[in-house]
Structures are given as structure tokens and as C-alpha cells.
């Protein structure tokens, strides 16, 4: 939502990662942004401007445009028309140009003529990245205008391994959203729980549920984009948590059992302004955990269970002035059960959602009812979990201001 109608200048330089920035252009367009691509001469040797033109449905500007100022494509015009600039990949040469104030190609001239915020995404071989001139040049860029997304570490095109890799497109996309966002959660620390728990019976068997953690992961992502420092307590899932790279303010604590989740949530809650509990911790656990795998013939026909601690109830004395949000996944009497849970657990807000008919667990979209302590009920129509996350965070912000 934050990129809708944003005019983004995407600067593309001559690095091996150029092909990946085509996917970044596509993701930003899909999110509603108006993307103007400016390629350096070197970049056009890796991927043709036509590819970006087809993706953005507008002419891709190259160095040829620098000395052809007709038709509103002068570098000053391009600069004026950008709400936000993303340079991805940013090469060592372009970083040097910008640090030195050289306006000798279309990209650097446009960037130097703009006061818009800039996300710089350097990508290069580790030795280049760590070299004294590159590191010195980065310090010369105005920190009020530039946000530098550090490169990822990993396999490089050269076959070497180390820092310098172009980050995952999803992480760059989130960093772009953060630069475009009004940062209304800056100064907030938000603890989020997500995912199922596993309660082992022996080393190869456990009790669990179908939660994937998608809803909580999207809440953590949205909070991070809006400027919060996030502690995500995450149960076992195949989904990747939001990257710590995108904003540098995501701490992920991976847990297995409900008891682990309780301990980690207690630790995360200590410095938090809000706790959003989107996890589905197991209420009970097998009373006996066998050290070795049980053979088929030894499997009990009836499983003795014992109660896990109730995380919300246990942490209630620590709630203090924090905003506490719960979730209720229901198959019957969704609103009534949600209202009961809201009162019983002393919550400020609760999202009650039906989890039958293929909704809820693992789905990309969610729908339900947002219930508040003051009795308000908001019907949330089916929408992406990221959008639902933002609706919840809007309410958290409002309640937090009153507390
Ligand atoms: C195959 C190949 C891959 C390259 N990859 C990178 C790279 O990942 N990062 C980088 O800074 N330079 C890389 N270079 C060097 C740049 O292309 C070169 O410095 C060029 O002058 C950059 O110009 P520009 O900043 O105007 O795009 C690469 C060169 C070649 C031939």
C-alpha cells in the first residue's frame, strides 16, 4: 500500500545482479508504484533497456538521454519527478561518482539533481566491497538523504563466498517500503509471536497444528517497515521470517515448544511497547517424553496429556502499560468466542478469524473481526495478511497513544 502511486526512479548500474533488478522493478510496479528506470551505459551491456521498458511500460532512460533534453527527459526533470530513488545494483564506480559529485551520466546527473530519499543497494565482489576507496566513498554520501542497504553474504558470481551479494529482491522491496513509509512506529518496540509449537512425544513424533506463522510474520514485516524494532518469537515453520537486513531492526527468536515460546516471549516483552500474539501454541503436551524412538509395537494407544502454561495468563502481570493483542482462530461462534477471550485474557484488541473453508492457516489472505476492549467491532473483509497486519498496527498505534 505504501508504494501506491509513488514515483520511483530505479537506477540500474553495470553489475552482474542487473537481471535481478528486473524483478525488483516488477515487484514495485505490482505494488502500484510508477517506476522510471535509468540505466548506466555499463548496465545496458548486461540487460537491454527493452526488458525494463516492457516491465515498466515506459521508456528506459540511458546515457543517450543526457544530451537530448527534449520531451521532459532532462536529468533535472527526471530528478523533479522522483519521490524516491533506488539504485540497485549500485556499482563501485557509480558510488564513486555520487561521492565525488560527478554528473557525467544520466543516472548520476539525475541523482545529484534530486533531494528525494535514496536507497543505495551496493553489490560487488567482497574484495571490492571491503576496499578502502569504496568504504570511504560510502561515508561521503549524505546520511540524511541516503540509506545504504548492506549487501548480503554468500555465494558470489566469481565463485567466492563473502559479503557483496545483491540482497534478496523481497528484502530490497521491504527496504524500499521502509524508505517510502512515514515511519509512524519509529520509537516503538513490538514483540510478535507466530507459528505453531511442537510438543514431542519421542524424538520423531510430536503434537502440533497447521499454523504456518504467515499472519505473525506479516505483522512483524509490516511493523518493521513502519519503523518499529521487532522481536519475532517464531515456532517451527517452512516460511522464512522477515530478513534482518531490510531495516536492521528485526530480531528473530526461534522456538519449538509452548514452554520455549513462553520463555522467549517473556524476554521479548520486557522492553516492548506492544505484544501481538498471532502464534498457535499447543495447549497440551504429551505427559511423557521418551528419550528414544518408540517402536511401533510400543506405541501407546491412548496418549496421556498435560496442560502447557497459558502464555497470556502467565505474562499478564507483565502487561503494565503495553498494548496487548490476541488472536482467536475459531470454527464456530467466531465473534462470541473472540469477545470472551478478549475479556478473559485482559487484552486490548483481538482478531477473531474463522479457520474453516480453507481460510486462516497458511492462506495468503485473511478475514475476520477486530474486537476492541471498548466494545468496538470492525469487520475485516478478505485481504492479504500484510494488509490485515497494517490494520491491526493502526489500532495498536491508536491504543498506544491513549495508554
Ligand atoms: C561481468 C562483469 C561483472 C561485473 N560486476 C560488477 C559488480 O557486481 N559490481 C561492481 O561494482 N562492478 C561490477 N563490474 C564492473 C562494472 O561493470 C564497471 O566498474 C563499470 O564501469 C560500472 O559502471 P557504472 O557504475 O556506470 O554502471 C562488472 C564487470 C563485468 C565485466
Q: What's the quick description here?
A:
Helix content is 33%, strand content 25%. The protein is elongated and about 80 Å long. The protein has 403 residues and is α/β, with parallel strands linked by helices.
Overview of the molecule:
- It is a single chain.
- The chain is 33% helix and 25% strand.
- With 403 residues, the chain is of the alpha/beta class.
- The protein has two domains: 7-180, Flavin prenyltransferase-like (Rossmann fold); 189-402, Rossmann fold.
- Helix 1 (18-30) runs parallel beside helix 3 (49-56), helix 1 (18-30) crosses helix 9 and helix 10 crosses helix 14.
- The longest helix is centred in the last third of the chain and has 18 residues, at 385-402.
- The structure holds flavin mononucleotide (FMN).
- The site of flavin mononucleotide has 14 residues, from helix 5.
Set out the fold topology.
Blueprint: E1 7-12, H1 18-30, E2 34-39, H2 43-46, H3 49-56, H4 75-80, E3 84-90, H5 92-100, H6 106-112, E4 118-122, H7 126-130, H8 132-140, E5 146-148, E6 152-155, E7 161-165, H9 169-180, E8 189-194, E9 199-202, E10 205-207, H10 214-225, E11 229-234, E12 250-254, H11 258-270, E13 274-277, E14 284-286, E15 305-307, H12 311-315, E16 323-330, H13 334-344, E17 349-354, E18 365-372, E19 377-384, H14 385-402
Parallel strand pairs: 1-2, 1-3, 3-4, 4-5, 8-11, 8-13, 11-12, 13-16, 16-17
Antiparallel strand pairs: 6-7, 9-10, 14-15, 17-18, 18-19
